[in-house]
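FORM 12-B: Structure-to-Sequence Request
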């Protein structure tokens, strides 16, 4: 039995908890979740203009031209929702750890560029992925997020000390010079129709100058990793993942209906072995469906979002309705107001736990975005034996 230690959890007032030493282990998106990192909203900023940010904001968006530290009231509200989410998980006997926020509202620089400020540490899913016993820090393709991994280093160092089998890896930090971005993508004159045409041709804002990937573009299916090629992950980044995980099969996917393909978890969402939700506006192409269909997986189109627009000062898609957190093959957390998604999952045989989270969207996404697995029960399985 692991030795029990006393641990203080960051900013949660008067919240002491006993916890066992860490075991890092997570092979997929649905095995029973026992240990997770949930982000924080402290000091979060709206990113200042830079190539990776500019292309993400539609020309007619109210977010255009806005940047800087978010208001303290909005930060406090987001942290309130995050803390309530943590309590929901802890009531299910899931251990929750939190990152250590940086001074995200300060200027940063490298020898190649300067940025007015950073972003935040709410969406931990973007920065770190756990594959088996390994926790891997992504390259990140936004300059404002270059140093974000530092918010998680205290936790990762703790896990490394407590679990002798844990591996901590960091992908090569990119330079993120202007050579990493196609200049013609950055014009306000580029229409949605043009973006969709480019997406169909697999032409995105990121070039192949150096390996780039965000962890939230990767889905884990045991022996197989499904990776989205888009704005935040390029082909060279996917090739790096193939070399880094030689015991895995790494598959590239694209979703032509998405004019802003940033992260896969509001587009393609595995629920349990054999079942996946797919965004009906961003359908997986026929030739890429073959892997799933040949192995008996059912791809179901997700229910329509309950909202026609995102919350104020949020440039995330309304399809965050699909950004759910699976706790085990029978239980799933869904944003409280997304009643149609909840109803669909209930009909698919899942116990649905509603979580109030919509006012935290602007800080980096929804429930899946805000978490990083540390431990899920289970082992590596081959879910796609026919290839």
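FORM 12-B RESPONSE
SEQUENCE OUT:
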């Amino acid at each position: 039995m692991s030795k029990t230690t006393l641990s203080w959890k960051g900013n949660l007032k008067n919240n002491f908890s006993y916890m066992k030493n860490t075991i890092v282990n997570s092979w997929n998106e649905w095995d029973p979740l026992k240990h997770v990192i949930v982000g924080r909203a402290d000091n979060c900023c709206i990113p200042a203009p830079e190539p990776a940010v500019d292309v993400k904001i539609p020309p007619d968006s109210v977010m255009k031209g806005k940047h800087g530290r978010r208001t303290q009231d909005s930060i406090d509200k987001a942290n309130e929702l995050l803390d309530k989410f943590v309590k929901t998980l802890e009531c299910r006997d899931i251990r929750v750890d939190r990152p250590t926020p940086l001074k995200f509202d300060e200027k940063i620089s490298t020898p190649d560029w300067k940025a007015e400020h950073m972003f935040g540490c709410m969406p931990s899913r973007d920065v770190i992925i756990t594959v088996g016993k390994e926790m891997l820090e992504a390259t990140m393709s936004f300059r404002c997020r270059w140093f974000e991994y530092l918010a998680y280093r205290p936790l990762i160092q703790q896990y490394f000390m407590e679990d002798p089998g844990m591996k901590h890896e960091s992908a090569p930090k990119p330079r993120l010079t202007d050579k990493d971005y196609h200049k013609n993508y950055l014009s306000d004159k580029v229409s949605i129709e043009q973006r969709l045409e480019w997406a169909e041709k697999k032409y995105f804002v990121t070039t192949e100058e150096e390996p780039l990937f965000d962890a939230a573009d990767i889905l884990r299916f045991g022996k197989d990793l499904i990776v989205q090629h888009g704005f935040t992950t390029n082909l060279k980044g996917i090739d790096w993942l193939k070399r880094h995980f030689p015991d895995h099969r790494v598959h590239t996917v694209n979703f032509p209906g998405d004019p802003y393909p940033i992260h896969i978890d509001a587009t393609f969402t595995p629920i349990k072995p054999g079942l996946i939700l797919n965004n009906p506006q961003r359908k997986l192409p026929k030739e890429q469906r073959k892997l799933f269909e040949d192995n008996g997986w059912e791809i179901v189109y997700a229910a329509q979002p309950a909202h026609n627009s995102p919350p104020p000062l949020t440039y995330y898609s309304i399809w965050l309705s699909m950004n759910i957190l699976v706790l085990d093959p029978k239980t799933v957390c869904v944003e409280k107001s997304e009643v149609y998604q909840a109803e669909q999952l209930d009909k698919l045989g899942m116990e649905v736990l509603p979580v109030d989270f919509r006012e935290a969207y602007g800080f980096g996404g929804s429930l899946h975005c805000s978490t990083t697995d540390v431990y899920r029960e289970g082992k590596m399985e081959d879910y796609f034996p026919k290839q």
